[in-house]
What does this fold into?
Amino acid sequence: MNDDKKFEDDKELDDLFDPSKNTKLKKAVKKAKRHTILRNAGISLLVLVALFVGGTIANRSLVYKLEGPAQMAVSDFNQISAPNRYIGKLERFHGFLGGKNTLSTFKILDGKVVYTGQSEYGYGLFQDEYAGWIGTETPMILGRSYDTEDLAIQKYNELGQREMIFFYPYVDYPQYKNDLQQLDQLEPNKVMEVALSFDQAYSMNQVNKMLPDNVTLTWFWIDDLNEEEKKASQSREVEQTDENGKQTTVSTPPLLRSEYTAYGIKAINENNEKIEDPLEPFVWALESGMKYNTRYKGEFERVYNNLLGSDSELTKDDIRVFGAVVTGDAESLKDLQELPFIKSSSIGVVTEKF
It folds into this structure.
């Protein structure tokens, strides 16, 4: 090895252990590491942002798809039930893989809008339409009527509005409601809704002709029962066993139909406009409701199948009307008092005319 080569090797060795140059090396390594960390952090952040944005878009798309059937079913069910009651404001809340909608309802009394309450329903992968609901507890006065034993007390909702009830024409009840006879007790500036129960089934055209022109027909109560269901609604003799093991025969009270469980056809829409062909939106709602797998599907199918004629097509000829809901002031409603086809009358919501 010559002297020059030896000098270069010694210089490289000295440089390696030179503290000043070793510090520069460490700084370079740290800088490279810092750049690597920042780059990886940036990539991770971009991935998280992409996942968040993509997840949000995917969740929103999924929630809209989950919301549609529930929202449609609730709307359709209101169309085939809810005497003189309409959906008002709808508030929609989207969450993770589901959501909740809150809606208000109202009634129309001789042109005046009356608020009737609020309800909500859920939807999604982790909750159904009940939105966590597990039951309701109320005093009897705020309950619903199911049979003649409930006639002992007038039922109300939480807003203090009276419940309307209907009586089947094929049942011979031991007592009836006849609220039309109380009209003289009401002030002349009051307007109200009244549920009328007929003495027999009529067609929609017959009902339109039978009712006086000075009252507003808002809803047809229809026969939605099959023969077995009609039999079950009448008083029956059943065997019961008492605490001593003795068997006795008792009679069950005949069933009524509350406005909250009755089915029918709306004659006016939510804008207080007369519907030219009331059967059309009713049939559409039934057929629409059967498409979705919601808690209402079974009832949509039951009502539709019970109404269906022998030709497998639902027409006006298949609709039998058991009663109706009308609105008006006390003076105009007095024209109903002596009509022979009205078997029973039940006043619902009462309010000021203006």
Summary: The chain has a mean pLDDT of 87. The longest strand covers residues 112-124.
